[in-house]
Amino acid sequence: MTQNLINLYSDTQTKPSAEMREAIANAEVGDEQQEADPTTNRLQDMVAELLGKEAALFLPSGVMCNQIAVKVWTNPGEEIILHESAHIVNFESGGAAALSGTMTRDLTGDRGMFTTDQVREALRSKGRHQPVQSLLAVENTANLGGGAIWPIEQIEAVCDVAHEAGLKTHLDGARLLNAVVASGTSASDYAAPFDSLWIDLSKGLGCPVGGVLAGSRSFIEEAFRYKHMYGGAMRQSGMIAAAGVYALNHNIDRMKDDHENARHLAKLLVDIPGVVVPDKNIETNMVFFDVSGTGMSAAEVSSRLLDKGVKIGATSETRLRAVTHLDVNRDHVTAAAEVLARVCQGEN
Ligand SMILES: *Cc1c(COP(=O)(O)O)cnc(C)c1O
């Protein structure tokens, strides 16, 4: 059953391929805390070059990338401007408050995005009564926005407003490379307006562990202090960095298949009675769909799907999220839609 499971739960569920495992097995290693792990150094150089930044730092997770950036750019009592659906707000255990003592100013807006007018309205007058606003954070692609891609002009514009007001800018680029592949805008163009940003290795790139944070040399120097403080400094980390090097060389362009499979899935879902795809503009690898028309809760649909070998998670009472990735192909996606159709017809 687990062998045949069609796993659309998340692009985090990918397993390293045989070729990636070979790269891991053959990795040259050293002591990462002394900057002497050649494979980690190589990965960092590759990401810095890809993103057009001076330096980069390998970290155990994307959450740590976000939390270290927040720590470097803010002081306790200061405020971060971001979208209410941001991962930093919803899925990081309150880390921005607990580790950095920050407040967040949560903006609304379609598909995980906001406008320059909203940022201007959120800017506070400066005085001793007001919290200092120190950081603007953007998520691209916007996860809860449906895998939506920010237009580069809109990113440049909101970052300009932030910089003029003296804020730093940070990009949660967990899935930036999905945006790059789908839009044709280069990673370094997307990165340019940001003082810091990171990409995840363990999502669409198919690695088992890690994220890479990038920025100026002085930013990365500070980030390394907090990497150590938070217990994220490693030793022979080349064993996991090797997967990242492999993925950057082999797994970027193929993400266009994931995006085509997601669009294919959305087309099939639209024809299932009781299922609604609220946002049909599938830009990358996610499809959110609503099952209230079936009379079942999203959790019930999810559990019945799992009984039939398809894993798709519920994200609310009525919605599920399907995510395509390198361990699912076109046939898997077609089969998953057929199973969903049977579940929605009430088949047990
Ligand atoms: C997954 C994700 C993270 C966290 O990454 P981990 O590597 O799982 O810690 C942060 N931001 C976004 C938008 C994500 O999707």
Explain what this protein looks like in three dimensions.
The protein has 348 residues and is an alpha/beta fold. It has two domains: 6-13 and 254-344, Aspartate Aminotransferase, domain 1 (Alpha-Beta Complex), CATH 3.90.1150; 31-250, Aspartate Aminotransferase, domain 2. 41% of the residues lie in helices and 16% in strands. The chain has 14 helices and twelve strands. The strands form three sheets. Strands 2-8-7-6-5-3-4 form a seven-stranded mixed beta sheet, with helices on both faces. A three-stranded antiparallel beta sheet has the order 9-12-11, with helices on one face. A hairpin with a 4-residue loop joins strand 11 and strand 12 (319-323). Helix 12 (255-270) runs parallel beside helix 14. The protein is globular, with a radius of gyration of 21 Å. The two termini are 17 Å apart. The relative contact order is 0.17. The model has no long low-confidence stretch (mean pLDDT 97).
